[in-house]
Design brief:
Blueprint: H1 2-10, H2 16-34, H3 38-41, H4 62-67, H5 74-88, H6 93-110, H7 118-132, H8 150-179, H9 182-185, H10 189-194, H11 203-213, H12 218-236, H13 241-262, H14 265-278
Helix pairs in contact: 1-8, 2-5, 2-14, 5-6, 6-7, 7-8, 7-14, 8-12, 8-14, 12-13, 13-14
């Protein structure tokens, strides 16, 4: 408990890996909005007798506020693009963290593209709010010149821990759900998926990929490696920073191939970003800022 309190008292999320993760998260969402047509981005509920997209809490999303649940909504698109572009370049973290969450909420509740990362991005951007409200820098790439106020350290650390717990739940659920299917236990699932019409490998390389996965031990080894990596990522969230960094490498490799072979670009980038944010260094250590070079500084500004 003492170590936990000490870590909270010294925690400072402002680091290069935090900046990369936050920008990558916004870029994943930006790509979805920028490269998806209105027809594919938004459509009303596929069930004629079901509720519309703008009923209940969903009614406060940017797409509903600016134009109802109509598919073509240039105002919402432009607002989303402006906010996400500003976040991606790192501008004013303190002032843009809440708008970023709002756009993430709007995408998760209104955008109907089958992606899978929208809900995760909504949660992650919400947990970034306590970590950004104390950041007074011009951009999140700017050099840290002052210590983070004590009130923001504890809340930032709490949000960081919740994000790690969320990541652990996501990957444990994914691993156990896969393991419950015989195709994954038999090592044939990836070969079947790569041949599928929706998330299968691109036509140009499908024959090569499927051929490799049919080759003796290759298919089972690659299939089981997905379960191992997902389980490892989940377990790493309860471990030291160094372990989480190894998990980040595994996640980048896993989601890179998901992005290339399955076409889930936004989802893959979102997961890379979230795991990067979850791999922040939480080991207490003292460093100095340019504002206090001659005094002991209790701060944790590092990768």
């Amino acid at each position: 408990m003492k170590r936990l309190v000490k870590s909270a008292a010294l925690f400072d999320p402002r680091s290069m890996i935090f900046s990369v993760g936050r920008s990558l998260l916004a870029l994943a969402q930006l790509g979805t909005i920028l490269f998806t047509s209105d027809r594919d981005l938004i459509f009303n509920t596929p069930h004629p007798d079901g509720p519309g997209l703008c009923e209940g809490i969903e009614g406060i999303s940017a797409w509903c506020v600016t134009g109802g649940d109509q598919a073509s909504n240039p105002a919402a698109r432009m607002v989303a693009l402006a906010v996400l572009a500003a976040v991606a370049i790192g501008a004013k973290p303190r002032w843009l963290c809440i708008p970023h969450w709002y756009i993430s909420f709007s995408i998760a509740t209104s955008v109907t593209v089958a992606d899978g990362g929208a809900a995760i991005a909504e949660v992650a951007s919400g947990l970034l709010i306590p970590q950004c409200l104390g950041d007074t820098r011009l951009t999140h790439w700017s050099k840290v010149e002052t210590q983070l106020a004590p009130r923001w350290r504890g809340s930032s650390y709490a949000a960081h821990l919740v994000l790690r717990l969320q990541v652990a739940i996501i990957y444990l659920d994914a691993a156990f759900a896969k393991a419950s299917h015989s195709a994954w236990r038999d090592g044939q699932a990836l070969r079947i998926i790569m041949q599928g019409p929706q998330f299968g490998a691109p036509d140009a390389v499908r024959g090569i990929v499927v051929g490799l996965l049919r080759n003796g031990w290759v298919g089972p080894a690659v299939t089981w490696s997905v379960l191992i990596i997902e389980t490892g990522i989940a377990v790493s969230m309860f471990c030291a920073t160094a372990v989480r960094r190894y998990a980040l490498v595994g996640a980048v490799v896993l989601h890179f191939f998901i992005m290339i072979l399955m076409g889930l670009f936004a989802f893959a980038l979102t997961m890379m970003a979230v795991i990067a944010l979850a791999s922040l260094n939480t080991s207490p250590r003292k460093v100095s800022t340019s504002a206090d070079r001659n005094q002991p500084v209790r701060s944790v500004v590092r990768l």
